[in-house]
C-alpha cells in the first residue's frame, strides 16, 4: 500500500509556526514575479506598475480565494466557527473565488494605471499556471482535496487512512500548472492579438478542471449536484463559456480595437 505523510509544518520558533501550504503560495508569487520581470509582457510595464500589479493580484487571490471558498463551499461551517475564518494555513482556498477576486483587482488596477483590461489579463494568465502548480503541491502536502477512492494509482492519505485515493492534486499540478503554462507560453509567442492568452487560459483550465473532477473527491458538504456534476465542473463550464466569448470578441474586433478598451 502507498502511504503518504508529509509534515505540513515547516518549522516552529517560539509561538510562530510556518506551514508548507503558505510557503507554496508565497513561492508561487515569487516565481511569478521573477517571470514578470524578465518576460516580454512584463517588461512592457514600468517598474512601479509591475510592483503594483503584483500587489493587486496577491490581494485578489488571497481575499477572493478565501471569501469564495467560505461562501461557495463551506459557509455553514464558518458561521459556526468564526475563529477559523482567517486560518488559511489549514487550507480552504477556492480557485474560482480567487479568479473572481483577481478579475476585480485587475478592474481596479487598470482604472488607476490606464491600462487595457485584456492586456493586463494576458499578463496575469501567462503567469497564473505557475501559482496553480505550487498551490496544488501545497494541497498535496496538506493531504487535502484528494481524489476519489481507487484501486490503482492511489495513495493512503493521513486525513483518510482507510481508503486509497487518487492523488488528484498532482494531476492538477501537472495539467493546470505545468501543461497549461506551456500552452499559454506558446500561444503568447504565436499571437499578437490582445486577449487571446486570456481566452486560451480560461478555456484550457476549464477543460482540464472538468476532466480532473472525475478523479477528485467532491467536497463532502456539497457532494454532487444535479446530473452528477460537481461544483468545480459547473464553475469551470462558466470559465469555458467566458473564454469562448473573449476569443470571439477579439477575433471580431481585432487587436487594435481591443487595446483601446479601458
| Helix percent band | 55-70%
Give the termini distance in whole angstroms.
56 Å
Estimate the mean pLDDT confidence.
Answer: 90
Overall 3D shape: globular
Strand order of the largest sheet: 1-2
- Strand composition percent: 5-15%
DSSP summary, beta strand count? 4
Query: Structural class per helix/strand content?
Result: mainly alpha
Features:
262 residues; mainly alpha; 7% strand; disordered C terminus
Brief synopsis:
It is built from nine helices and four strands; from the N terminus they run ββααααααββααα. It is mostly helical and 262 residues long.
Structure write-up:
By secondary structure, this protein is mostly helical. It has one domain (9-259). Helices cover 64% and strands 7% of the residues. The chain contains nine helices and four strands, in the order E-E-H-H-H-H-H-H-E-E-H-H-H. It has helices spanning 20-38, 40-43, 47-72, 75-80, 95-113, 117-141, 168-190, 196-212, 231-259; strands at residues 9-13, 16-19, 155-157, 160-165. The chain has a two-stranded antiparallel ribbon with strand order 1-2. Strands 3-4 form a two-stranded antiparallel sheet. Helix 6 runs antiparallel to helix 7 (168-190). The longest helix has 29 residues, at 231-259. The protein is globular. The N and C termini lie far apart (56 Å). Residues 256-262 have low confidence and may be disordered.
